[in-house]
Design a protein that fits this description.
It contains 25 helices and 23 strands. The protein is α+β, with helices and mostly antiparallel strands. Among the domains are: about 160 residues, Ribonuclease H-like superfamily/Ribonuclease H (Nucleotidyltransferase, domain 5); about 150 residues, no CATH class; about 80 residues, no CATH class. The strands form 7 sheets. It has a 5-stranded mixed beta sheet. It has a 4-stranded antiparallel beta sheet with strand order 21-22-13-23. It has a 4-stranded antiparallel beta sheet with strand order 14-15-16-17, with helices on one face. Helix 2 links the parallel strand 4 and strand 5. Helix 9 packs antiparallel against helix 13 and helix 19 packs across helix 20. The longest helix has 26 residues. It is globular and about 80 Å long. It starts with a strand and ends in a 6-residue tail after the last strand.
């Protein structure tokens, strides 16, 4: 039997500031009502003081189920197993739809109009000073019951989570429950450097724009960005018949292919101004448990709707820069003592603080962090998926440096004679060209790695990579042919490499080698090609339809490659979780353990990550493993 539930609660604790774990454990948190339904029965509501319904042994479905689970555990003091919970928000994301109950309904076209009454009721009844009346209680019950009906209807209309997806969700929640230890004194010290960091953000904007914009708060910034976008990206900035660059639009632009790198940097600076690294330190301190200083609930299962990768919530660890201070203990000591950190530890306060974000995460007392990252995982998965990349895979299997091999082919020298500069070009080739990237992609990636070439030279680099990887262009063409033919032939399967597409008249589904299924929702075959509703984009308040994106062969290749890389991560995490390993972080293609047996677990972690599952036979894997005393630094 299935139990569908939704809680309404109140507390003196601010849920958005403190996070769900601290909220559920706060002494003032109490339940206002619990609406529920068994299977397809009518929705009922339990109020405090009434006999509690018998829910023994039920599979409990809830939207963002971690909240309901923690309320059961900490407020109602009911011992219900994690494995009994199914999250319908995770189900939505696994089906490439938005995670919020309101958004997933709008995404499906139920109504593009927001209902603000629920938020009004919560402000009145759930946030101090509380308002109470029989009328408000009745309205809150009706609101809660409607959420249960909506959740049940939406969930039943979607593909259910597979048994393996549900297992992966539970692994993700155990990682969330375990949490990661935060160096709170370091975080508190970092906040004191806020004014210096914000001044530097403004300097970066002025530098990138050549002095045209001196502040991202300037109205000129919006126009500067708009003028430098392609036509598709410009559409994202239109809101309420105006050109806007609010938080939602900035998010969409940073996830859009038609935004030049310098423009992305200015947009990112705008975000940084309101969510600087200082804000990240502050957030870590806010979210940490008062008693044990651990931050919990950092990962959203299947938060990356196109791939199924986890995204980061609250602590936002996926957004931490990879840069790490060379001597984090020395920097920490200077910061907590309030000493000057510039120029001793860096040219800018901004850079110094960014280099201390990762080291703010530390192992438990008496333990170490064991951190493993797959080596060039996407560059391995991509040719393997094509089914024709044996020569490229042989390079990885032999342990050769693929970047040097690229450079050797491009510059027509032996691998042993490749220079440091040529290897860097080989690296940019691999990172920029694998997903059908052309000159523009090479130039953008090159800037990130200090490689700047004239357009004719960049074209030569792209062409050289494609010649050295003869599997690539035919594979991309096969992908485009397969998904286009699927759109034209409803309910028929078309394969490209190791992936199969099928259009059911509503969604364009594709099956990965692992058996996991993803889709491009509400797909259409239009004059410019295949388009689909993009869950990661948010509609304007007055939108009549969810924003749409165009599918092209490079994007299809990228989505599939990253999804398979995520399947490898999930496979490894399932094994490690079953063995009792304490996973505390998964960041992109990286797994972090908290252990008092670092040498033993380093060996085991590498063994697990380098052994492909049965469905990935022939995929050569390698991983770099380090033992660290702070995240990011050994």
């Amino acid at each position: 039997m299935t139990l569908w539930i939704d809680f309404e609660t109140r507390s003196a604790c601010d849920l958005k500031v403190a996070g769900v774990y601290n909220y559920a454990q706060h002494g003032s948190t109490e339940v206002l009502c619990m609406s529920y339904a068994f299977d397809d029965e009518d929705v009922q509501t339990w109020l405090p003081g009434q006999p509690f319904p018998d829910i023994t042994g039920q599979m409990i479905y809830a939207h963002n189920a971690a909240f309901e689970r923690l309320i059961f555990w900490y407020v109602l003091q009911l011992d219900i197993l994690l494995e009994q919970f199914v999250c319908t928000a995770a189900q939505a994301r696994a089906n490439c739809a938005p995670g919020s109950l309101e958004d997933v309904g709008r995404f499906a076209g139920a109504s593009m109009k927001k209902d603000h009454r629920g938020a009004q009721l919560i402000r009145k009844m759930s946030v101090p000073p509380y308002e109470e009346s029989p009328e408000l209680t009745a309205e809150m019950v009706a609101y809660c019951e409607q959420d249960v009906r909506a959740m049940r209807a939406i969930s039943k209309a979607m593909r259910p989570l597979s048994a393996q997806e549900l297992q992966d969700y539970h692994v993700n929640e155990r990682i969330n429950d375990r949490g990661v230890l935060v160096d709170v004194p370091l975080c508190q010290a970092a906040v004191k450097y806020a004014s210096a960091e914000l001044a530097e953000i403004q300097e970066i904007v002025a530098e990138v724009t050549g002095g045209e914009i001196t502040s991202v708060r300037s109205p000129k910034m919006r126009a500067w960005v708009y003028e430098r976008l392609d036509d598709e990206a410009k559409k994202l900035m239109h809101k309420d018949d105006k050109v806007s660059i609010d938080k939602t639009i900035r998010f969409n632009l940073l996830n859009c292919d038609g935004v030049p790198p310098d423009v992305q940097e200015v947009i990112q600076c705008a975000d940084d101004l309101w969510a600087s690294s200082v804000a990240k330190f502050s957030r870590l301190a806010q979210l940490s448990d008062e008693e044990d200083r651990r931050v919990r609930g950092a990962f959203v299962f299947a938060g990356g709707s196109a791939t199924g990768r986890a995204s980061s919530y609250g602590a936002q660890v996926h957004n931490f820069t990879r840069k790490c201070a060379a001597a984090p203990e020395d920097v920490r000591l200077a910061m907590v003592r309030g000493h000057a950190i510039v120029p001793k530890f860096g040219k800018r306060v901004t850079d110094v603080l960014k280099g201390m974000l990762r080291p703010a995460l530390i192992p438990s007392k008496g333990k170490y962090l064991v951190v493993a990252d797959w080596s060039a995982i996407e560059a391995r998965v991509n040719p393997w998926l094509s089914g024709k990349g044996e020569d490229k895979l042989a390079i990885f299997a032999s342990g050769e440096d693929v970047y040097k091999v690229n450079a050797a082919a491009t510059f027509r020298v032996s691998v042993s004679r490749v220079t440091k500069e040529q290897r860097q070009i080989g690296k940019v080739q691999e990172l920029a060209c694998g997903f059908a990237g052309g000159v523009g992609a090479f130039a953008a990636m090159g800037r990130a790695y200090g490689v700047v070439l004239h357009e004719s030279d960049a074209r030569r680099m792209v062409d050289a990579w494609r010649r050295a990887n003869p599997w690539s262009v035919p594979y991309w063409q096969d992908l485009e042919s397969a998904y286009t033919r699927a759109m034209r032939n409803k309910n028929k399967e078309f394969s490209a490499g190791r992936v199969t597409y099928m259009f059911d008249g509503l969604h364009l589904w594709y099956v990965l080698p692992s058996g996991r299924i993803l889709c491009y929702p509400y797909a259409r075959l239009e004059s410019e090609g295949v388009t689909y509703a993009k869950a990661a984009w948010k509609p304007a308040a007055d939108a009549k339809e969810w924003p749409r994106a165009r599918l092209w062969k490079g994007l299809a290749c990228e989505n599939i490659t990253q999804a398979v890389a995520n399947d490898l991560l999930r496979h490894s995490c399932r094994q490690l979780d079953a063995e009792g390993a304490e996973i505390i972080l998964t960041v992109h293609d990286e797994i972090v353990l908290d252990t008092d047996r670092p040498e033993e677990m380093a060996v085991r972690l590498k063994e697990v990550m380098c052994t492909p599952p049965d469905w990935a036979k022939g995929l050569p894997l390698d991983a770099e493993v380090e033992v660290m005393t702070r995240y990011g630094k050994g």
